């Protein structure tokens, strides 16, 4: 990352560049990108998480996509230039040179003087680098830290445009030849007046130019707030976000500062429409992975922008010519519902978790199990069960005593718990890590009468496990067939199959799977969907499909004389595809709560689907009374139909490299108004 500010702040910004180089190096080491030079420039190695690898992969892919497109379309030109702003320890020049793509192109990199000097010393000291670039002399002339025939490394503060212009003249750049400007997470660290001046200067000074910008957006939603807090804590605030928070404001920024064309695409759109499907599958299979929500949220908060001026039509950047389905337009909402914290404070600490399951095991008693969260002062897979009990209108939380705790329950995530009576529930599936899902089933027995926090106990009993239970992110829903009760286990994923589309009928007394005929159009495989009991069958909504794309379909598994039948539930307007939501049925209405979708301009609230008419209505959740970001994915929810109260428990996740966010305490929503208005 390059020249933004002087003084202590610039040192903090340079620190983000060092971290970025290490992340790129780690991604290359795991096979996400082919780059044998990045490790040489990063200096040291550090293994990053798969989520970070994916994030840096899509960043590198987007920039490479734009650079190669520029080089391809200008290959008939006698000379072209790439000017990388805030290049840090990036390896772009060496990769392009190694592939023979710089036969008529000069790459010029600009960064802080001391960063440029460090990089120059690295190049001179590593034969594999120095032999590629050669040495044309000229170092020490003004701001030139290193000079080769087709490579110039300049030490200049980008905010000092007069010095930058002099340095570029000394390096021999030609303002009349096609020039590509690159800025990867650079402008946002500058004061907006300075970054805008840089954008305007580039358009004014170069007659034929393209600009590629990779940066953050959407600062005000829950993920955006966590992202901003992270950079503020690093003393590297993201200045662009307040003035340029989304696609359209960034596009207008360039059009108003001298550029004639501009296109913006978030990284979900780029990955979906610009990365070939076989390459998508290759990347998705590189490492065990189970952080889909954070991956898609990260991608919805970063964009790649391409702008152009003075370029021949045949040279127009590819992204400017692409038409993708608009996922950033506003979602039409019919109203809002206010979220109110339950006011438990310290009692709620054990409910700060995600990937857990909550079940209403008797009136006003909610049992929460598993997940990843905050326990004993650290983040870990949760060992303890917690109970919420409503007494005199107030919710109280407490830790549950586990009897027969020698029985392993494996501190699992993404399992299900189905309450079969006032004293018995069945836990099915779940995982410890993405490579271990053979956790099976577990009976949970609890007293029939106790509603007291201090005496609530759960006994764990291991039954013989059906292989059908070895999955996670699935659903287990109670159905009736010929007077017998079954759990319908559907979808999910396993350690070997990223998406499952099968189903099983588990007899709740015998705990064995029974073959029951099912006819009709088979839904595509999915996980992280919702499932609700309705009219003796099951309503399945949304989920994440085999291509890691959210689904917008709704199916009803209906009981018929000799078995069940899949039926498609048509919705209008069409349901916006989503996953990692929860769902409830109330009086012929299906309620979908939260989740993740690709409409990056907003986050899902509550969607009401009228099961009689198919009418689909969206409501936003107002969080003005909450002092912390409310992340509505990987959460659980309980609907109390008599009071029309929706209780949201837990939720959050590992927010890319920005830290783990856990919703602070349970939140209550009163749905009376929206349920009576339908």
Task: Quickly describe the structure.
This protein is α+β, with helices and mostly antiparallel strands and 678 residues long. It is built from 16 helices and 39 strands.
Can you describe this structure?
- 24% of the residues lie in helices and 30% in strands.
- With 678 residues, the chain is α+β, with helices and mostly antiparallel strands.
- The chain folds into 2 domains: 8-220 and 246-309, Rossmann fold (3-Layer(aba) Sandwich), CATH 3.40.50; 333-670, Neuraminidase.
- The strands form 8 sheets. The protein has an 8-stranded mixed beta sheet with strand order 3-4-2-1-5-6-8-7, sandwiched between helices. It has an 8-stranded mixed beta sheet with strand order 31-32-33-34-9-39-36-35.
- The longest helix has 24 residues, at 50-73.
- 50% of the residues are buried.
- The model is unreliable at 1-9 (pLDDT under 50).
